[in-house]
């Protein structure tokens, strides 16, 4: 029988590999094949299918955590949401200034994950 960690690693690896293939495949198709606009929208969303597999893997793994691990994850998640949320909110005001660069929304999710990872290290360090 697989441990929750080994099952998580397998599922998340499969999800990320499929995500990578979907991103490259969808971009290649969009750039090399004549596709109607509505089909391009659907094609652009194809990478969300493996992304949702990754979400499912994370949620399944989180169910195996004990109370302390959940506390650490919650604190780190709260920090991530507040930092990225306030940062993107502030940038929204800056975008109102003429000739200021726009922040593509596609970077919000990676920013959440990155800040979460850093916050998790910080939060975990307080309990060592």
UniProtKB/TrEMBL annotation:
- Chain segments annotated as transmembrane: 12-29, 35-55, 76-94, 106-123
The domain of life for this entry's organism is Bacteria
Question: Which keywords describe this protein according to UniProt?
Answer: Membrane, Transmembrane, Transmembrane helix
> Could you confirm whether the keyword Membrane appears in this record?
yes
Task: Write down what this protein is called.
Answer: Uncharacterized protein
Its lineage opens with: Bacteria, Pseudomonadati, Pseudomonadota, Alphaproteobacteria, Iodidimonadales
């Amino acid at each position: 029988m697989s441990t929750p960690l080994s099952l998580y690693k397998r599922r998340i690896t499969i999800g990320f590999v499929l995500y990578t293939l979907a991103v490259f495949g969808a971009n290649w198709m969009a750039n090399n094949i004549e596709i109607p606009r509505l089909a391009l929208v659907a094609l652009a969303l194809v990478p969300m299918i493996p992304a949702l597999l990754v979400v499912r893997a994370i949620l399944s793994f989180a169910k195996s955590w004990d109370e302390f691990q959940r506390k650490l994850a919650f604190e780190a998640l709260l920090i991530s949401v507040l930092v990225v949320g306030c940062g993107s909110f502030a940038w929204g005001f800056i975008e109102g200034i003429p000739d200021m660069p726009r922040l593509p929304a596609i970077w919000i999710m990676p920013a959440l994950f990155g800040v979460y990872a850093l916050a998790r290290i910080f939060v975990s360090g307080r309990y060592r």
